[in-house]
Design goal:
Elements (H helix, E strand, L loop, with lengths): L2 H20 L3 H8 L3 H30 L1 H20 L4 H28 L3 H29 L5 H23 L23 H6 L2 H16 L7 H8 L5 H27 L3 H24 L4 H22 L3 H8 L5 H29 L1 H23 L4 H4 L8 H4 L1 H8 L1
Helix pairs in contact: 1-6, 1-7, 2-3, 3-4, 3-5, 3-15, 4-5, 4-7, 5-15, 6-11, 9-15, 9-16, 10-15, 11-13, 12-13, 12-16, 14-15, 15-16
Amino acid sequence: MGAAMRRIQMGSALSAFGIGFTVPFLYVYVAKVRDLGSTTAGLVLAAFAVAALIALPFVGRVIDRRGPLPVVVAASVTASVGALALGMSGTATTAVLSAAVLGAGTAVMQPALATMIVWCSPPASRTRAFATQFFLQNLGLGLGGLIGGQIVDEHRPGSFTTLFLIEAVMFLVLGAIAAGVRIPKAAGVAGAPGRGERPAGGGLRALLQHRAMVQLMVLGFVLFFACYGQFESGLSAYGVEAAGISPSTLGIALAANTAVIVIAQFAVLRFVEYRKRSRVIASVGLIWAVAWAAAAYAGLGNGSQAMATAAFISTYALFGLGESLLSPTVAPLVADLAPGGMVGQYNSAFALVKQLALAVGPAVGGPMGASLHGPYVVTFFLFSLGITYLAIRLGRELTPVQNQPSLAAPRVVALSKPEQEHAAV
Protein backbone atom coordinates (compact mmCIF):
# COMPACT_ATOMS: atom_id res chain seq x y z
CA MET A 1 0.00 0.00 0.00
CA GLY A 2 1.51 3.30 -1.12
CA ALA A 3 1.68 6.50 0.90
CA ALA A 4 -1.27 8.07 -0.94
CA MET A 5 -3.46 5.03 -0.33
CA ARG A 6 -2.52 4.95 3.36
CA ARG A 7 -3.59 8.57 3.75
CA ILE A 8 -6.87 7.96 1.95
CA GLN A 9 -7.66 4.93 4.10
CA MET A 10 -6.72 6.79 7.28
CA GLY A 11 -8.96 9.74 6.41
CA SER A 12 -11.86 7.49 5.45
CA ALA A 13 -11.57 5.54 8.72
CA LEU A 14 -11.41 8.71 10.84
CA SER A 15 -14.49 10.18 9.15
CA ALA A 16 -16.36 6.92 9.82
CA PHE A 17 -15.14 7.12 13.41
CA GLY A 18 -16.72 10.57 13.68
CA ILE A 19 -19.98 9.46 12.08
CA GLY A 20 -20.18 6.59 14.56
CA PHE A 21 -20.41 9.12 17.41
CA THR A 22 -23.76 10.49 16.21
CA VAL A 23 -25.62 8.04 13.97
CA PRO A 24 -26.92 5.71 16.73
CA PHE A 25 -28.20 8.64 18.78
CA LEU A 26 -29.64 10.93 16.11
CA TYR A 27 -33.29 10.02 16.65
CA VAL A 28 -33.05 10.35 20.45
CA TYR A 29 -31.21 13.65 20.10
CA VAL A 30 -33.82 15.29 17.86
CA ALA A 31 -36.99 13.75 19.32
CA LYS A 32 -36.19 13.81 23.04
CA VAL A 33 -33.10 15.83 23.89
CA ARG A 34 -34.12 18.79 21.72
CA ASP A 35 -37.78 17.93 22.39
CA LEU A 36 -38.74 18.38 18.74
CA GLY A 37 -40.86 15.22 18.55
CA SER A 38 -40.81 12.05 16.53
CA THR A 39 -42.20 13.74 13.40
CA THR A 40 -39.29 16.17 13.26
CA ALA A 41 -36.88 13.32 13.93
CA GLY A 42 -38.34 11.48 10.95
CA LEU A 43 -37.98 14.60 8.79
CA VAL A 44 -34.35 14.95 9.86
CA LEU A 45 -33.63 11.35 8.86
CA ALA A 46 -35.46 11.88 5.56
CA ALA A 47 -33.45 15.06 4.92
CA PHE A 48 -30.25 13.00 4.79
CA ALA A 49 -31.65 10.80 2.00
CA VAL A 50 -33.28 13.65 0.05
CA ALA A 51 -30.10 15.75 0.10
CA ALA A 52 -28.08 12.79 -1.12
CA LEU A 53 -30.51 12.07 -3.94
CA ILE A 54 -30.33 15.72 -5.04
CA ALA A 55 -26.54 16.06 -4.86
CA LEU A 56 -25.34 12.77 -6.31
CA PRO A 57 -26.61 13.17 -9.92
CA PHE A 58 -24.39 16.24 -10.35
CA VAL A 59 -21.22 15.30 -8.53
CA GLY A 60 -19.97 12.56 -10.86
CA ARG A 61 -19.18 14.88 -13.75
CA VAL A 62 -17.47 17.31 -11.37
CA ILE A 63 -15.25 14.49 -10.07
CA ASP A 64 -14.27 13.51 -13.59
CA ARG A 65 -13.59 17.08 -14.68
CA ARG A 66 -11.91 18.50 -11.57
CA GLY A 67 -10.62 15.32 -9.97
CA PRO A 68 -11.83 13.66 -6.76
CA LEU A 69 -9.46 15.50 -4.39
CA PRO A 70 -11.14 18.95 -4.41
CA VAL A 71 -14.54 17.24 -4.18
CA VAL A 72 -13.48 15.32 -1.06
CA VAL A 73 -12.14 18.50 0.54
CA ALA A 74 -15.30 20.49 -0.27
CA ALA A 75 -17.56 17.66 0.89
CA SER A 76 -15.61 17.31 4.13
CA VAL A 77 -15.99 21.02 4.92
CA THR A 78 -19.69 20.89 4.02
CA ALA A 79 -20.29 17.85 6.22
CA SER A 80 -18.36 19.48 9.08
CA VAL A 81 -20.54 22.61 8.90
CA GLY A 82 -23.68 20.47 8.82
CA ALA A 83 -22.60 18.37 11.80
CA LEU A 84 -21.72 21.43 13.88
CA ALA A 85 -24.99 23.15 12.97
CA LEU A 86 -27.02 20.05 13.80
CA GLY A 87 -25.35 19.82 17.19
CA MET A 88 -26.48 23.36 17.96
CA SER A 89 -29.95 23.16 16.40
CA GLY A 90 -32.81 24.08 18.68
CA THR A 91 -35.68 24.32 16.20
CA ALA A 92 -37.21 21.94 13.68
CA THR A 93 -36.21 24.15 10.73
CA THR A 94 -32.54 24.41 11.68
CA ALA A 95 -32.37 20.69 12.46
CA VAL A 96 -33.78 19.68 9.07
CA LEU A 97 -31.62 22.16 7.15
CA SER A 98 -28.50 21.12 9.06
CA ALA A 99 -29.25 17.45 8.37
CA ALA A 100 -29.63 18.24 4.67
CA VAL A 101 -26.21 19.94 4.60
CA LEU A 102 -24.63 17.05 6.50
CA GLY A 103 -26.35 14.47 4.29
CA ALA A 104 -25.21 16.17 1.09
CA GLY A 105 -21.63 16.37 2.32
CA THR A 106 -21.39 12.75 3.41
CA ALA A 107 -23.13 11.51 0.24
CA VAL A 108 -20.80 13.38 -2.10
CA MET A 109 -17.80 12.22 -0.11
CA GLN A 110 -18.33 8.52 -0.87
CA PRO A 111 -17.99 8.45 -4.69
CA ALA A 112 -15.12 10.94 -4.47
CA LEU A 113 -13.24 8.72 -2.00
CA ALA A 114 -13.98 5.68 -4.16
CA THR A 115 -12.53 7.47 -7.18
CA MET A 116 -9.42 8.41 -5.20
CA ILE A 117 -8.96 4.74 -4.33
CA VAL A 118 -9.34 3.81 -8.00
CA TRP A 119 -6.79 6.43 -9.07
CA CYS A 120 -4.29 5.24 -6.44
CA SER A 121 -4.57 1.51 -7.11
CA PRO A 122 -3.91 -0.67 -10.16
CA PRO A 123 -6.70 -3.10 -11.07
CA ALA A 124 -4.83 -6.02 -9.50
CA SER A 125 -4.89 -4.43 -6.02
CA ARG A 126 -8.30 -2.75 -6.11
CA THR A 127 -10.06 -5.68 -4.49
CA ARG A 128 -7.81 -5.46 -1.45
CA ALA A 129 -8.00 -1.65 -1.36
CA PHE A 130 -11.79 -1.56 -1.21
CA ALA A 131 -11.89 -4.42 1.30
CA THR A 132 -9.51 -2.47 3.53
CA GLN A 133 -11.68 0.64 3.27
CA PHE A 134 -14.81 -1.32 4.22
CA PHE A 135 -13.02 -2.96 7.15
CA LEU A 136 -11.65 0.32 8.50
CA GLN A 137 -14.96 2.14 8.05
CA ASN A 138 -16.86 -0.51 9.99
CA LEU A 139 -14.21 -0.55 12.67
CA GLY A 140 -14.37 3.25 12.89
CA LEU A 141 -18.18 3.27 13.07
CA GLY A 142 -18.16 0.62 15.79
CA LEU A 143 -15.54 2.34 17.91
CA GLY A 144 -17.21 5.71 17.47
CA GLY A 145 -20.57 4.33 18.56
CA LEU A 146 -18.99 2.55 21.53
CA ILE A 147 -17.17 5.64 22.78
CA GLY A 148 -20.09 7.92 22.00
CA GLY A 149 -22.37 5.73 24.09
CA GLN A 150 -20.13 6.35 27.09
CA ILE A 151 -20.17 10.13 26.57
CA VAL A 152 -23.83 10.71 25.80
CA ASP A 153 -26.40 11.51 28.48
CA GLU A 154 -30.01 12.10 27.53
CA HIS A 155 -30.39 14.58 30.40
CA ARG A 156 -27.38 16.66 29.31
CA PRO A 157 -27.88 18.24 25.86
CA GLY A 158 -24.29 19.43 25.98
CA SER A 159 -23.08 15.82 25.78
CA PHE A 160 -24.77 15.47 22.38
CA THR A 161 -23.23 18.75 21.22
CA THR A 162 -19.86 17.25 22.11
CA LEU A 163 -20.58 14.25 19.88
CA PHE A 164 -21.45 16.44 16.91
CA LEU A 165 -18.37 18.57 17.55
CA ILE A 166 -16.18 15.45 17.43
CA GLU A 167 -17.87 14.43 14.18
CA ALA A 168 -17.28 17.88 12.68
CA VAL A 169 -13.60 17.78 13.63
CA MET A 170 -13.16 14.31 12.09
CA PHE A 171 -14.57 15.57 8.80
CA LEU A 172 -12.07 18.43 8.82
CA VAL A 173 -9.30 15.94 9.53
CA LEU A 174 -10.39 13.95 6.47
CA GLY A 175 -10.31 17.11 4.37
CA ALA A 176 -6.83 18.02 5.61
CA ILE A 177 -5.50 14.53 4.95
CA ALA A 178 -7.06 14.42 1.47
CA ALA A 179 -5.63 17.83 0.60
CA GLY A 180 -2.11 16.46 1.10
CA VAL A 181 -2.59 13.39 -1.12
CA ARG A 182 -0.81 13.30 -4.47
CA ILE A 183 -2.70 10.93 -6.69
CA PRO A 184 -1.94 9.59 -10.18
CA LYS A 185 -4.49 9.07 -12.91
CA ALA A 186 -6.48 5.84 -12.83
CA ALA A 187 -5.09 2.66 -14.28
CA GLY A 188 -7.39 0.98 -16.77
CA VAL A 189 -8.74 -2.52 -16.99
CA ALA A 190 -8.26 -4.71 -19.99
CA GLY A 191 -11.49 -5.02 -21.91
CA ALA A 192 -13.33 -2.24 -20.05
CA PRO A 193 -16.12 -1.31 -19.94
CA GLY A 194 -17.96 -4.42 -21.15
CA ARG A 195 -18.04 -7.40 -23.45
CA GLY A 196 -17.40 -5.50 -26.69
CA GLU A 197 -19.61 -2.69 -25.45
CA ARG A 198 -17.94 0.65 -24.91
CA PRO A 199 -20.35 3.47 -25.68
CA ALA A 200 -18.97 6.49 -27.43
CA GLY A 201 -19.06 9.85 -25.68
CA GLY A 202 -19.86 10.33 -22.02
CA GLY A 203 -22.55 11.38 -19.59
CA LEU A 204 -25.75 9.72 -18.46
CA ARG A 205 -26.71 8.51 -21.93
CA ALA A 206 -23.46 6.60 -22.36
CA LEU A 207 -23.84 5.08 -18.89
CA LEU A 208 -27.40 3.93 -19.59
CA GLN A 209 -26.27 2.40 -22.88
CA HIS A 210 -23.72 0.30 -21.00
CA ARG A 211 -25.66 -2.91 -20.43
CA ALA A 212 -23.31 -4.40 -17.86
CA MET A 213 -23.36 -1.24 -15.71
CA VAL A 214 -27.15 -1.00 -15.88
CA GLN A 215 -27.43 -4.61 -14.74
CA LEU A 216 -24.96 -3.93 -11.93
CA MET A 217 -27.03 -0.95 -10.77
CA VAL A 218 -30.18 -3.08 -10.73
CA LEU A 219 -28.31 -5.71 -8.77
CA GLY A 220 -26.95 -3.03 -6.43
CA PHE A 221 -30.44 -1.70 -5.74
CA VAL A 222 -31.65 -5.16 -4.76
CA LEU A 223 -28.56 -5.72 -2.59
CA PHE A 224 -29.02 -2.53 -0.60
CA PHE A 225 -32.81 -2.80 -0.51
CA ALA A 226 -32.80 -6.37 0.81
CA CYS A 227 -30.04 -5.96 3.40
CA TYR A 228 -28.86 -2.51 4.42
CA GLY A 229 -32.31 -1.00 3.91
CA GLN A 230 -33.75 -3.40 6.51
CA PHE A 231 -31.19 -3.24 9.33
CA GLU A 232 -32.64 -0.33 11.27
CA SER A 233 -36.21 -0.51 10.02
CA GLY A 234 -38.04 -3.64 8.90
CA LEU A 235 -35.75 -6.25 10.40
CA SER A 236 -35.51 -4.56 13.79
CA ALA A 237 -39.30 -4.02 13.84
CA TYR A 238 -39.81 -7.67 12.91
CA GLY A 239 -37.43 -8.76 15.67
CA VAL A 240 -39.29 -6.76 18.32
CA GLU A 241 -42.84 -7.55 17.18
CA ALA A 242 -42.54 -11.11 15.88
CA ALA A 243 -39.57 -12.59 17.74
CA GLY A 244 -39.91 -10.75 21.06
CA ILE A 245 -36.41 -9.30 20.81
CA SER A 246 -35.51 -6.61 23.35
CA PRO A 247 -33.78 -3.35 22.35
CA SER A 248 -30.61 -4.49 24.11
CA THR A 249 -30.62 -7.69 22.05
CA LEU A 250 -30.92 -5.58 18.89
CA GLY A 251 -27.70 -3.90 19.95
CA ILE A 252 -26.06 -7.31 20.40
CA ALA A 253 -27.25 -8.36 16.94
CA LEU A 254 -25.73 -5.22 15.36
CA ALA A 255 -22.52 -5.87 17.29
CA ALA A 256 -22.47 -9.44 15.94
CA ASN A 257 -22.83 -8.05 12.42
CA THR A 258 -19.88 -5.71 12.90
CA ALA A 259 -17.80 -8.41 14.60
CA VAL A 260 -18.27 -10.85 11.72
CA ILE A 261 -17.25 -8.15 9.22
CA VAL A 262 -14.13 -7.23 11.19
CA ILE A 263 -13.11 -10.86 11.74
CA ALA A 264 -14.04 -12.26 8.35
CA GLN A 265 -13.03 -9.44 6.00
CA PHE A 266 -9.42 -10.43 5.37
CA ALA A 267 -10.12 -14.12 5.88
CA VAL A 268 -12.49 -14.12 2.90
CA LEU A 269 -10.33 -11.78 0.83
CA ARG A 270 -8.00 -14.54 -0.34
CA PHE A 271 -11.04 -16.58 -1.32
CA VAL A 272 -12.59 -13.68 -3.27
CA GLU A 273 -9.45 -12.56 -5.12
CA TYR A 274 -9.16 -15.74 -7.17
CA ARG A 275 -12.82 -16.33 -7.99
CA LYS A 276 -15.30 -14.85 -10.40
CA ARG A 277 -16.97 -11.78 -9.00
CA SER A 278 -20.38 -12.80 -10.33
CA ARG A 279 -20.19 -16.12 -8.48
CA VAL A 280 -19.09 -14.42 -5.25
CA ILE A 281 -22.08 -12.05 -5.43
CA ALA A 282 -24.35 -15.00 -6.26
CA SER A 283 -23.11 -16.78 -3.13
CA VAL A 284 -24.05 -13.69 -1.08
CA GLY A 285 -27.63 -14.08 -2.25
CA LEU A 286 -27.65 -17.68 -0.98
CA ILE A 287 -26.08 -16.68 2.35
CA TRP A 288 -28.67 -13.96 2.84
CA ALA A 289 -31.45 -16.39 1.93
CA VAL A 290 -30.24 -18.56 4.82
CA ALA A 291 -30.21 -15.44 7.00
CA TRP A 292 -33.85 -14.70 6.19
CA ALA A 293 -34.70 -18.34 6.88
CA ALA A 294 -33.13 -17.93 10.33
CA ALA A 295 -35.18 -14.76 10.81
CA ALA A 296 -38.30 -16.69 9.86
CA TYR A 297 -37.54 -19.28 12.52
CA ALA A 298 -36.90 -16.55 15.10
CA GLY A 299 -40.27 -14.90 14.55
CA LEU A 300 -42.51 -17.67 13.25
CA GLY A 301 -41.02 -20.86 14.71
CA ASN A 302 -42.20 -22.74 17.78
CA GLY A 303 -38.87 -22.82 19.61
CA SER A 304 -37.98 -21.21 22.91
CA GLN A 305 -37.21 -17.52 23.33
CA ALA A 306 -33.54 -18.38 23.69
CA MET A 307 -33.58 -20.21 20.35
CA ALA A 308 -35.44 -17.33 18.71
CA THR A 309 -32.88 -14.86 20.06
CA ALA A 310 -29.97 -16.98 18.84
CA ALA A 311 -31.56 -17.30 15.39
CA PHE A 312 -32.16 -13.57 15.18
CA ILE A 313 -28.58 -12.71 16.13
CA SER A 314 -27.35 -15.25 13.58
CA THR A 315 -29.39 -13.40 10.95
CA TYR A 316 -27.33 -10.27 11.49
CA ALA A 317 -24.12 -12.31 11.63
CA LEU A 318 -24.90 -13.95 8.28
CA PHE A 319 -25.62 -10.55 6.78
CA GLY A 320 -22.17 -9.49 7.98
CA LEU A 321 -20.58 -12.47 6.24
CA GLY A 322 -22.30 -11.48 3.01
CA GLU A 323 -21.17 -7.89 3.40
CA SER A 324 -17.56 -8.99 3.82
CA LEU A 325 -17.83 -10.82 0.49
CA LEU A 326 -19.41 -7.84 -1.27
CA SER A 327 -16.99 -5.11 -0.20
CA PRO A 328 -14.01 -6.39 -2.25
CA THR A 329 -16.28 -7.28 -5.17
CA VAL A 330 -18.91 -4.69 -6.09
CA ALA A 331 -17.06 -1.38 -5.67
CA PRO A 332 -14.00 -2.48 -7.68
CA LEU A 333 -16.31 -3.82 -10.39
CA VAL A 334 -17.97 -0.40 -10.75
CA ALA A 335 -14.54 1.14 -11.28
CA ASP A 336 -13.44 -1.57 -13.72
CA LEU A 337 -16.57 -1.09 -15.83
CA ALA A 338 -16.06 2.67 -16.14
CA PRO A 339 -14.57 4.00 -19.39
CA GLY A 340 -11.66 6.40 -19.10
CA GLY A 341 -12.79 9.78 -17.81
CA MET A 342 -16.07 8.47 -16.35
CA VAL A 343 -14.99 6.79 -13.12
CA GLY A 344 -16.52 9.55 -11.01
CA GLN A 345 -19.82 9.40 -12.89
CA TYR A 346 -20.02 5.62 -12.55
CA ASN A 347 -19.23 5.79 -8.83
CA SER A 348 -21.79 8.56 -8.34
CA ALA A 349 -24.47 6.69 -10.28
CA PHE A 350 -23.95 3.58 -8.17
CA ALA A 351 -23.99 5.70 -4.98
CA LEU A 352 -27.27 7.23 -6.14
CA VAL A 353 -28.79 3.77 -6.61
CA LYS A 354 -27.57 2.86 -3.12
CA GLN A 355 -29.18 5.93 -1.56
CA LEU A 356 -32.43 5.27 -3.41
CA ALA A 357 -32.50 1.71 -2.10
CA LEU A 358 -31.75 2.91 1.43
CA ALA A 359 -34.66 5.37 1.15
CA VAL A 360 -37.16 2.89 -0.30
CA GLY A 361 -36.07 -0.07 1.85
CA PRO A 362 -37.24 1.28 5.22
CA ALA A 363 -40.44 2.70 3.70
CA VAL A 364 -41.41 -0.74 2.39
CA GLY A 365 -39.83 -2.99 4.98
CA GLY A 366 -40.72 -1.02 8.11
CA PRO A 367 -44.51 -1.47 7.98
CA MET A 368 -44.19 -5.05 6.69
CA GLY A 369 -41.75 -6.07 9.39
CA ALA A 370 -43.95 -4.61 12.11
CA SER A 371 -47.24 -6.21 11.08
CA LEU A 372 -46.96 -8.61 8.10
CA HIS A 373 -44.43 -11.00 9.59
CA GLY A 374 -44.81 -13.99 7.27
CA PRO A 375 -45.02 -12.02 4.01
CA TYR A 376 -42.08 -9.89 5.15
CA VAL A 377 -39.55 -12.70 5.55
CA VAL A 378 -40.83 -14.54 2.47
CA THR A 379 -40.53 -11.39 0.35
CA PHE A 380 -36.95 -10.73 1.34
CA PHE A 381 -36.02 -14.40 1.13
CA LEU A 382 -37.12 -14.23 -2.51
CA PHE A 383 -35.21 -10.97 -3.01
CA SER A 384 -32.08 -12.74 -1.77
CA LEU A 385 -32.56 -15.52 -4.31
CA GLY A 386 -33.08 -12.77 -6.88
CA ILE A 387 -29.60 -11.47 -6.03
CA THR A 388 -28.17 -14.86 -7.01
CA TYR A 389 -30.06 -14.83 -10.31
CA LEU A 390 -29.07 -11.25 -11.17
CA ALA A 391 -25.42 -11.93 -10.31
CA ILE A 392 -25.26 -14.96 -12.60
CA ARG A 393 -26.90 -12.95 -15.36
CA LEU A 394 -24.45 -10.08 -14.85
CA GLY A 395 -21.53 -12.49 -15.22
CA ARG A 396 -22.53 -13.13 -18.83
CA GLU A 397 -22.05 -9.43 -19.64
CA LEU A 398 -18.55 -9.15 -18.17
CA THR A 399 -15.26 -9.82 -19.87
CA PRO A 400 -13.16 -12.58 -18.25
CA VAL A 401 -10.80 -10.01 -16.69
CA GLN A 402 -13.63 -7.87 -15.33
CA ASN A 403 -15.24 -10.92 -13.78
CA GLN A 404 -11.97 -12.30 -12.40
CA PRO A 405 -9.17 -9.70 -12.24
CA SER A 406 -6.64 -12.32 -11.13
CA LEU A 407 -6.62 -13.54 -14.75
CA ALA A 408 -4.80 -10.32 -15.63
CA ALA A 409 -2.03 -10.95 -13.10
CA PRO A 410 1.37 -10.55 -14.75
CA ARG A 411 2.49 -13.83 -16.23
CA VAL A 412 6.08 -12.66 -16.38
CA VAL A 413 6.49 -14.26 -12.99
CA ALA A 414 6.14 -17.64 -14.62
CA LEU A 415 8.51 -16.61 -17.39
CA SER A 416 11.17 -14.94 -15.31
CA LYS A 417 14.71 -16.19 -15.62
CA PRO A 418 14.99 -17.81 -12.18
CA GLU A 419 11.73 -19.64 -12.76
CA GLN A 420 12.85 -20.83 -16.19
CA GLU A 421 16.13 -22.08 -14.80
CA HIS A 422 14.28 -23.86 -12.02
CA ALA A 423 11.97 -25.45 -14.58
CA ALA A 424 14.96 -26.53 -16.64
CA VAL A 425 16.50 -28.22 -13.64
